[in-house]
Amino acid sequence: MFAIAVKEEQYKTYILSDQPAQSRVEVVPERGGIITRWQVQGHDLLYLDAERFANPDLSVRGGIPILFPICGNLPNNTYSYQGKEYNLKQHGFARDLPWEVTEGVTKDLAGITLILNSSDRTRAVYPFDFELAFTYKLKGNSLEIDQRYTNTGDRPMPFSTGLHPYFWAPDKSKLQFKIPAVQYRDQITQTQHPFTGRFDLNVDEIDAAFTKITGLAATAIDHSRRLQVRLLFKASYSNVVFWTLKDKDFYCLEPWTAPRNALNTGLHLMNLQPGAKWETQVRLTVDFF
């Protein structure tokens, strides 16, 4: 049985559930359309910093934030378009703005669609008109994130997009990763390193960019919790980023369509023509062993 419920707390929260599979997802539209919780068979899979989440002046650290119209940061948070300079903060604005719920489905799965439209606030930092539609679909041990990007303006729209899942890991020493790449770039030291499936988790921060991926899936194996999470993504995602902080019970495994600073360099940047739509998808599954 699939269901959608609503609970009124600090923020209105939509709860998608698949009761026979004992799975549920919680979505908070007004906090960036974010998924804050994904639970399967009693296991919480996502990390959430509740204190930051409760403060609307802070970006959320946890759940699955949406990255748009950039992934990562820009030098000095600036880019140029047609001779004018704009300021755009790290990961863009989609994760900070309220989204609107437009549709719910409980037949064959539990699904909900959220919309974000351009506004005077977005045009001040990104001079393009758009509509984003994200549909979250829960069924069994899988969570699909279907995305549609529409250019509603009269000029080509450059952008990149991605997801920033925070996975809960109380014992990161027992983690192993399968990422379709042989090396990564350390964004802190700006050096290249071979990838062996594990990271040195004794350092304060790891920010590893896999910019030459050879497949469309990445897997995190948590031996301490006896589970593995698998991300499957479309070919439009050209980068995978791994990020974590020492002494924090999370790791992030992030599919991006373009690397940092793509709005300035143009590398892997999407350019959507006026009136055009573009769709993509990320699918997350969890298995226990």
From TrEMBL:
Alphabetized InterPro entries for the sequence: Aldose_1/G6P_1-epimerase, Gal_mutarotase_sf_dom, GH-type_carb-bd
UniProt GO MF annotations: carbohydrate binding; isomerase activity
One Pfam family from the record: Aldose_epim
Ranges in coiled-coil conformation: none
GO biological process: carbohydrate metabolic process
CDD domains: Aldose_epim_Slr1438
Name of the featured protein: Galactose mutarotase-like enzyme
Organism: Oscillatoria acuminata PCC 6304
Classification of source organism: Bacteria, Bacillati, Cyanobacteriota, Cyanophyceae, Oscillatoriophycideae
